[in-house]
């Protein structure tokens, strides 16, 4: 934070969400100097998110490769947050080994979960089928009609806002990292190589390597040659935060995910009484309005699973934009432009994939070697 | 606003909602000097309200006497806002002669409206029965299933926030009125007569007459003798504000009230694109939390009437406390303590009753005469 101007860092990171911030930290740990630019770091999707670390519960057909990365990042989490707590001088990153319970509202929803269970077992993933009454024994607030579900004891959560705060605290103490609260106007290309960027106010930052970590805006930085533009688009999510008054605690102890008449809903209980309720998935370009319909559907589905939410204060409504990619998998690694890396496209898994992405990108920045676990997610896979 | 301290006004008004502010203005017009005390004037129920001026649509059995006051205040509104506009130097009080359409969702709800229509006609009130298709011709956003309703062309609306702003502007220009942003700690009683009040900071204000206009808090001012305490209680209302984007305007042109599976819902469209959607009625003591259940029910019922609200941004959620009285009618006039008047208990009609109440209280303050229209609402009626 005290480097002299103008800076010529080893690495320029464009974007200060969880991915950019964690990458800055891990790159500094590897000995690299970093400048991170964002007009409002930590305020977009990373701030809105629910922080589920649920690779097994959120498994989708055809995403076995992504599962490998998701599991690796989930496994890395306990160590990652322990290191971060130390690096930050004691900030609690809000990791909670709460386990996840996925439940079904009706018979059709039950069939969806049963299919998921079959698929999970075929991959040797640990998930236990519970009857409705077994599920209610674990979570007494579940609706009487809930048709059973899946207990995934290894799917946890992190309070993404506490995680952001811990990252800011760690970077504050890290002399190799400078955060510039400004927008990048244009990438600088010199001799067919990314060479840094120019900020909105005209400041030029020269850097040996540049990382695009600007979420759904990663494809809109001027000056990036067409063949190096990450193919990301905004996927809107609306999300609510309820408060659980002392007298009702513990309201839920596990993350509860539900399939409600084919809609997916989830409730993530924080240790300090916040209950996060999400989320819509909408293709609405860059619109971030909270809508009457979005809030209605979230409350309707959550209420079907947990009728008792009715009494809880609704303390926040928010919408943010996930960075989606053509195959719903992240875009991590060197782009077609030498000196330019991408770390974006994390879609619904940005919080989960923060440790694995930050470690891998730091490794690439420090050594040029691409770790096996992220190799399938190269930006180059979209080339025709 | 420029009177020397310590002030000894003719009148002390405790409470700066619409009733208190309008009473201050009307009393000043009658030549009286006024000090109004409120730690946060214009921020509670008066700010939350929807501003419906709908005495005919909101008619209830057994409330014929209240109807007379409601109608008188509704008739007074156009002149009241014209005078206020002039007094404020041109502020628009947001009065809108939009008419009101009350619709029914199902056959049972239709029967409720038909009963209301019969009652309205028995009192010679003007209300026109419309079929479902006639109602949809007036308001094309109405749900296809809506079973007809009542058009009340004389039931209008005022933007209560614009009305508050106009009152503040008028009082700013009125040298006879001083607004003190502080809480009253205790009423002063001298020789069996109200004599002013002491503020939280110890400041004493001596006044010949004092008006209790503190909404649901009017019964909790220390120092008021038991027999003079207005019997008011808080009745919580949750209310939402949506925004109608330019491209959808006009979304609605009338205030739409609906009976939806026996629940009452309303949508009030403002000229500038705000759509107010209310309101719950809850006995929750002084709790003002916006709850998941309250927001859910409001959206559910409004959506049943006007499915298109789904697309509209939800820009505000709020809860406030109506001052309810034992007979749901206001409490206006001299109390059992000489020198102490009440102007409270307006329940769901505070905005509607602002002109009639302010005029009547100003009349009593100036002349001691109680206007016939408010005589039935004397605080003394609750004496055993």
From TrEMBL, chains A, B:
Record keyword Oxidoreductase present: yes
Catalytic activity: glycine + O2 + H2O = glyoxylate + H2O2 + NH4(+)
Enzyme category, top tier: oxidoreductase
Keywords recorded for this protein, A-Z: Oxidoreductase, Thiamine biosynthesis
Superkingdom in the source lineage: Bacteria
InterPro entries on file: FAD-dep_OxRdtase, FAD/NAD-bd_sf, Gly_oxidase_ThiO
Pathway: Cofactor biosynthesis; thiamine diphosphate biosynthesis
Residue span(s) of domain FAD dependent oxidoreductase: 10-363
EC number(s) reported in the record: 1.4.3.19
NCBIfam families named among the record's database cross-references: thiamin_ThiO
Name recorded for this polypeptide: glycine oxidase
Organism field: Catenulispora subtropica
